[in-house]
Amino acid sequence: MKLTLRVWRQKNADAEGAMSTYQVDGISSDMSFLEMLDTLNEELILRGEDPVAFDHDCREGICGACSLVINGDAHGPERTTTCQLHMRSFRDGDTIDVEPWRASAFPVVKDLVVDRSAFERVIQAGGYVTAPTGAAPEAHATPVPKPDADFAFEHAECIGCGACVAACPNGAAMLFTSAKINHLNVLPQGAPERETRVLDMVAAMDDEGFGGCTLAGECATACPKGIPLMSITSMNKEWLRATRKVKRSPHPPR
Amino acid sequence: MSAAYLNYPTGAPVADTKAPAGPVAERWDTRRFEAKLVNPANRRKHTVIVVGTGLAGGSAGATLAEQGYHVVQFCYQDSPRRAHSIAAQGGINAAKNYRNDGDSVHRLFYDTVKGGDFRARESNVHRLAQISVEIIDQCVAQGVPFAREYGGLLDTRSFGGVQVSRTFYARGQTGQQLLLGAYQALSRQIAAGNVEMHPRTEMLDLIVVDGRARGIVARDLITGRIDTYYADAVVLASGGYGNVFYLSTNAMNSNATAVWRAHRRGAWFANPCFTQIHPTCVPRTGDHQSKLTLMSESLRNDGRIWVPKAKGDDRPAHRIPEDERDYYLERIYPSFGNLVPRDIASRAAKNVCDEGRGVGPGGQGVYLDFADAVRRMGRDAVEARYGNLFDMYQRITDEDPYEVPMRIYPAVHYTMGGLWVDYDLQTTVPGLFAIGEANFSDHGANRLGASALMQGLADGYFVLPATINDYLARNPRHETVTDEHPNVQEVLAETQDRLHLLLAVDGDRTPDSFHRELGELMWEFCGMARTDSGLRKALERIPQIREEFWRRIKVPGSGEEFNQSLEKANRIVDYLELAELMCLDALHREESCGGHFREESQTPDGEAARRDDAFAYAAAWEFTDTGAAPVLHKEDLVFEYVHPTQRSYA
Amino acid sequence: MARAVWDSTVGKKTVMAVSGLTMLLYLIVHMAGNLKIFFGADTFNEYARWLRTVGAPFLHEEWALWLVRVVLVVAVVAHAVSAYQLSRRDLRARPDKYVHKKARASYATRTMRWGGVILGLFIVWHILDLTTGTVHPGGFQAGRPYENIVDTFSTWYGNVIYIVAMLALGLHVRHGFWSAAQTLGAGSRTRDRALKGVANVLALLLTVGFLAVPVGVMTGVVG
Asked: Where is the active site (chain B) (predicted)?
């Protein structure tokens, strides 16, 4: 296949960026999208040009590093991660636009690489169970009903790639935040911190400058792991419940 | 080939001085009791550097911080949650015996020693089996959503190489779920200020002062800034070195720089040739292939592996009648069938493909067929167990495994070798510890499925936090090290020179082209089957590639910016040295064991022939200089409980 | 706690949901009352008169009406201020647009903001037209809403404004009702179809119900 790529190039966080056009030839339909970019980069290096920077690591669709907006879609036209998108989804002669995640909470680092550390701080605000090593009771001491375990798992599948934020017209991180809250809040192990978790994580999410939810549903459509939009509904319910139960400001001193 | 490199001297034997004597089942308790403790009030004054945030590093960082130590932690990824442990699919072993199927700590111990083909240390393995039970408890307490049965209790499944059902799992994403558990525990400590986290920061060298590990040199991958970080102990949890082969199931950026730099600074490297080739990976499709994708071994529980009986039979799978199919694993190994250990399954696949009976493009594949499973359990049950793996396969190959059998082929997956460590997981550099895949200790010559997660978490949650106390208590803080110290100056200068040189060569070949060349060489001569002549060929070629590398490498851009080509090139520098040691180790070990198969050493029916008389030792190599012969130190392995037998899975 | 709710995006959405549902409830009653116009001028004007005396004799005349007005004003203001603040926040969170543009989400979702603005302006005109009579075409007759309505819908612009606003209302309610349910945590996978159905029915009912009046005037059924 022969393709025309229009790629966002930006030297660093402070520089202005712009789309640059490249031609690539000899692309096999079995290549992954990132292997196609590898091919471009090999050529750029040999031409003495700066190769296109993009985040990637496992290339198995699980680490959540890869993060490209392809033709306006986070992770491209298929419901998967960029690394698992294959060139058979495109046709010979296509022009493909490649851009970084866009959100003010995800500033561009270089080219297609963005800084997603805002997600770290959301998790740090309460996306855990306080279970110090060595203090655990026997695993079978607390059975978990299978539907609850399945619900937890479905939300725990989030890979933290940020496609939800990239796709959201408001740059909101509701789906990411709700996935972790729902994963932990439904389990008996997460129950003791159920209220503080949702209040603190939502507050942290707001502090990072993510937008609010207008239930456009773009996040769930883009999510490569299929976290459902209802995840946000469940989080809202948890938040309202916690607000009623906990008589304190959800904004802890930060 | 420099003949000098092959003329390695054999130095003094090395012994594990930390494992206590006495019954194997009591050694861990004894060691914990004998270990000195650090007063909780004093822990805050100790800094521990942890490199890597996978299962081992993440769990270690979180646990050390919980104990009160000040932890400074590094990962090259943008988030600790992305370490490659996340890609582990199948599960984690634990001797819980919830199934009442005859499992026990002793059986897990036995299975692991046997599975490792009697090249692992009994004390370490027994400790691993003991701790396995606590790991499950710990992870459940953290909210890891393991698969459960309708009664609400944990589900288990069986895995290659064993006959009990002891593998706990979270659909096909066990590694992800366990890592997120550790990551969340780590996040809690970061928020509490007990862990100072440096993402997108790569360790480039080790700082050794007065014979002790006192810090690291690391590069901020965004700004390119090179900094020094000091501590009272350094823990390497940087994973394995499978990416030497270019194509492997490792993450693209997984690398050997941390362990190799530590090796150069005095940490001995043990059994580098013990690499695991995983039998169930998606076959490659062409030269553009950048990495290989593993399909969980758990697929072998219900899938049946076969190839056509006739050579060159290129009919589509469904047109090949049952009696013209060769279910070769079931035929050769009737009692374990498709569940033989990984090394055996991989080699068997290679053999049938070498016979010309392979399937798919280039004949480099065998079928993994679920037709019987779908008939037996129904499509829904198959989907519940393997749905996400099937989806992943279909995504990559554009073939529907419910309709067409999967094609699989072995690929480099895990490295059993690594930095030599004693029972305390301390390397030969005092104050330098290695945990998880970065060390060599628990899997011998072959790792059983679902044991990597177990080992990573055992090391990080339970072993290291107990043993590092002893080191810190016995080595009260020395004087503070600063950048002005001559050792630091030397390390810093070397690091900067190396990066400058990489940028300055301005040749005509890309980093990837060298990496691919090295990888192909290693796969051919130091892959699934190794020969004396092949290894010698590789050893002759590697220094030539290295020489060419430093003449023709082209790295665009500068060192003071986000520069992925520079990162890559710098990692290849280390692969080019490590590959040589792997080949030497493979050449010197004139026996077949586990993942190391020497064609000269096989039984009449083609099975690996171990030579316990000559090679019942771990080979720990001491670095001397680039391209110069290393010194071999042997650690004799003593088997008091599991007596070495020729492994038989027939 | 009130402060905490107001400071949070989720809290502000809750304010929007509650105020929106309050207005929705009012609109249903309002629409049903409007349909009385088809029973003739006397019935309609009598109904309008009764509205002022609801709750009497316990409540003084017009107290109930003012109570409703106060609640509605609070709801409108709360709804609008939250919407404004959330929108500003959303735009700040996504300052750079994608070069490759793509139509996203449903029409109802995308028109929430502009639809809201249109409805806000409509309410102002509607009050000035039929409550205070300030911009009423022809002579405004207090206490004779039937005649006033006929006046308004006898002008082309009265019809245009009203029809555009009611279509906007339909779209707004369609996404807004379902959205409010999600914000209040009332949605679930099993209930989703039902909620969407109710939203569609409500939107259709309100639009058709409200539009029946100008259509009635235009066709001469009312006049």
From this structure: 342
Q: Is C154 inside any structural domain?
A: yes
CA distance B293 to C56: 77
pLDDT tens for residues B276-331? 999 999 998 888 999 999 888 889 989 999 999 999 898 999 999 999 999 999 99
| In chain A, where the domains are located | 3-110, 117-245
Please tell me what DSSP assigns to residue B611. -
Instruction: Identify which of A72, A99, A103 has the shortest CB distance to residue C93.
Output: A103
Superfamily of domain A117-245: Alpha-helical ferredoxin (1.10.1060.10)
Q: Report, at the CATH architecture level, how domain A3-110 is classified.
A: Roll (3.10)
CATH value at residue B296: 3.90.700.10
Chain C residue closest to A207 (CA)?
C8
The tally of domains found in chain C comes to 1
CA distance B98 to B563: 50
* Average pLDDT of the residues of chain C: 94
Does B touch A (3+ CB pairs < 8 Å)?
Answer: yes
Domain interval for residue B538: 486-610
Cβ C178–A230 below 8 Å, yes or no?
A: no
Provide φ and ψ at C137, rounded to 5°.
Answer: -75, 135
Helices (H), B121-173: 122-142
**Is B315 assigned a catalytic role?**
no
Q: What is the CATH number of the domain that holds C46?
A: 1.20.1300.10
Reported confidence tier of residue A253, pLDDT bands at 50, 70, 90: very low
Q: Report residue B272: phi and psi, to 5°.
A: -60, -20
Q: What pLDDT, on a 0 to 100 scale, did the predictor assign at position A254?
A: 39
Instruction: Say if C137 falls within a structural domain.
Output: yes
pLDDT digits (tens, 9 = 90+) for B381-429: 999 888 888 988 998 999 999 999 999 999 999 999 999 999 999 999 9
Does the beta carbon of C193 lie under 8 angstroms from any beta carbon of chain A? no
Sorted by sequence, the CB contacts under 8 Å of residue B55 that are 6+ apart come out as: B83, B85, B175, B178, B179, B182, B436, B453, B456, B457, B460
Tell me, yes or no, whether C208 lies in a domain.
Answer: yes
